[in-house]
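Notebook, p. 212. Picked up where the previous page left off. The plan for this session was modest: take the two constructs that came back from the sequencing core last week, fold each one, and keep the raw output in the notebook itself so nobody has to go hunting through shared drives later. Recording the first one now, exactly as returned: residue sequence, then the structure token string.
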Amino acid sequence: MARRKSNKNGNNILIFCSVFSIIYVIYCIDTKQDLKTTIIAIFISLFLIVIYLYSLGLYLPIRQLQLKRKYKSYNTNKKVSKGIEKNYEVNLSKNIEVGKTLNVSRKDDSNVKLVSTTKIQYKLPPLTLINKEENKKFISALKKLDSKNYEFILGTYSNGKVKIQNIDTMPNLLIGGTIMTGKTTFIRTMLATLLLNKSPNELKLLILDSKSIEYSDFNGLPHLLAPIITNSRYAYIALKHISTEIERRYDILEESKTKNIDEYNLTSEEKISKILIIIDEYMSFNMNSELNSILESISQDAWRVGINIVLVVNHPSSSVISSLAKSNFLTRISFRTTSMQDSRLILGQNGAEKIIGQGNFLFLPRDTNNLTNVKEFYLSDDVIKKIVDYYCSQHRFQYDETILMDDEEKWDTTMVEKEDDYEEPLYNEIVEFVIEQGEVSTSLLQRRFRLGYNRAARCIDLLEERGIIGPQNDLKPREVLVKFKND
């Protein structure tokens, strides 16, 4: 706020000086002052007017030329186009890695920074990648999707009508059924539909595949938060990262006084992307109770902040998924089951045991108990590969490796051996803030003091060592053990 007031006051001074200098020029001409005085007054007036226009942001063409000159050093095809105020769109060639920050600066002008991870623009794949003759109905269904919403093609009814589903209205989806009934084909087609309509800036994916081969062709996709996860240890670490992200997003909504991510994106310049988590064959991952407990937590809170989960379980009994976690998956899909008992486990009622044919399933929306018979679409592996390759060919992409690192590994990557203990320059301010808040987390310190993850994590460890806060308690913020004397 102080910066905005300062800019406003500066503009008022410029307006006053410009008006005064123009009046003085008119006075010099009217009173026939000497030529030298008049010329000096005119130059001062023009100089003040140019500075005022510069402060208003009407100097974009000049900054564009500066950017163009700077990008010559990268020896690459580039385009700098006009943006809003100080935002620019820069098209980098494929030989520049996405995921790094390019700093462009000059001694004679202010610094210009381009963060390619947030500013990079991707083109959506054209429908020409799909064979029109083989997928005529699928292509016509794609044209019905609302680009503003996160919709995908669920399948077709028995009467041939296409069923379109919005991710936000699910919000979490449980899929069950015996093997070789079409569950993986359904998810692959669902992902292909979303990729055709949503860029990496709008949608992020986290895919957990215990079979290691069903989604391997999606690796390298810029939508992915991490490479395809195939073992229980990395699955747990990735879901812990999601829980931290959920906490961060809730704090952002609280600070911005908005109710959901869609409302926040409408009012904020910095957009937050949706995240879709795919967990295929959850039973293979569920090796301990920790994974189940974290699934309970994120499935309950994630959808409120733009994170949705699709969980595939052949036999969702209480020994595989807890009743609490299962209750958070209000939308259900069941492919053919071997018994009425399995059908009731998935849908809460009979019917799935009577399904005939592969690719047919019963769909149960969250707001009704009426089952709908739906036939899934099938997209060949070749079409999906073309869609993935189209995104990968635009820019080189680099994943954030810390997503698959536990706290100890993150610490080891940044640990510097020193004789003295680590001391935080902001320690006193952090302690005061923590005691006032009554609770603390790594993400809270990151936002409040603008710290990086590693530094904030060190502060948390330091506070715990010195008895300021208690130990970690699952996904909850840490308890503060000390208080001010006047309390």
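Okay, moving on. Second construct, recorded in the same format:
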Amino acid sequence: MKMKTTWAILVTILSISYIAAYGEVQILPNEAQPNENGSIPLFVGPEENPYECRDEAGNPCPIDTGDNAWMLTSSALVLLMTPGVAFFYAGLARRKSVNSTIMMVFIVMGIITVQWTLYGYSLAFGPAINGQHDFVGDFSYAFLNGVSHKAPLEGPLFPMTIPHQTFMAFQLTFAIITPALIVGGLVDRIKFSAFAIFVVIWATVVYDPLAHWVWGGGFLFDLGALDFAGGTVVHISSGWSALAGALVLGRRLGLGKVPMEPHNIPMIILGASLLWFGWFGFNAGSAVAASGLAASAWVVTNLATGTAAVTWMLMSWAHTGKPSIVGAASGAVAGLVGITPASGFVAPMGAMIIGFVVAMVCYGAVIFKNRRGWDDALDVWGVHGTGGTVGAILTGILANAHINGFDGAWEGDIAQLGVNTLGAAVAIAYSFGLSLLIFKVMDLVWPGGIRVTPREEEVGLDIAQHGERAYVEE
């Protein structure tokens, strides 16, 4: 009885809050009518979302089974990338923090799945029409309200041939991997409990609004910023947020005095390979159809990645006298990052340029941050933050209308370079500034701060935080 009363009170509070924010709840027999802000009521029926495509009889518009199969496959591929990140980071980490590193990446999959379902998807992709909700979405799709498994979205932003739920699931995988990438800047130092709460806050106030700005009909979308698969939304936000976290946490004990080289290079290569494989879903899947554009995105993704891997290997060979395996893997990831925003807009030769340039710039960024003493432990800023920024700018230069209808500065549209540079700058300022604030406030209010004690750091977070060793030796 108490449980029923609690649920009744909760539903009443949510309903009153929604009415106060979006106007009177209005549920019609066949289709819910959006209010003046473009929001739809909570608790609409499965066939009542006015933003989904239905014929005059109320039946869902036809779904292209080929497109749907490809997008479900792409969603699985992108989800696989997060365990790839876990292996990549765990190999780069020290032996005593392997489990801790994997656990932080892995638990993000659970945390964000719940957050995205409850309200994250709605904040990122809630209806944005007639100049409304330019900064963030609303709660129209909270609890996946009105998100059909049969009907596609329609309209100028999302003319689709896949069910609304398929699109939601695809975007979920992006929301998962983005905070997972931040882990690389925090390893060996952050308390697991603090990290778990940070993920929820960060996804809510950083990722969801940024995704809305660029992909959900927000103001960067309206300005015409090009980001096909997440250079701005995923890589700039995660890379610069990781740097903010590294600066707040401070350097690891013994940095520069004791060896901190990667503990397992085969694990690094396994992780990088899973990322390369899954990235085809990341970029080619962002065509949201099994189309020629998806084929183009697949080809340029592979080309930029291969070019960057070879370029980084040659640079490290020239710099250290030996071709580095870890360097080749890092170069491949840098190429994947750099081509992400451009993958739906550039031709093959443009992709090679991006792979070459992003590898050189990211290699230099890693050297720069080491000289500055920034303990971005696993080079999240050096590869993702820097690579995403370079990729966004190069998209504004190398975009080709022959691929997807948009020209960059190289083809004569100088304004596109300006818009993409502005979009990258806004994303950097927002994600870095807000993440710095979140980390600092949490460090002030968290019991004992968000960093583990020196003793725990010395013992290793595997034992200190989780009570489990990665390698048990008899």
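Notes on construct two before I forget. The mean pLDDT is 91.
Flagging for discussion at group meeting.
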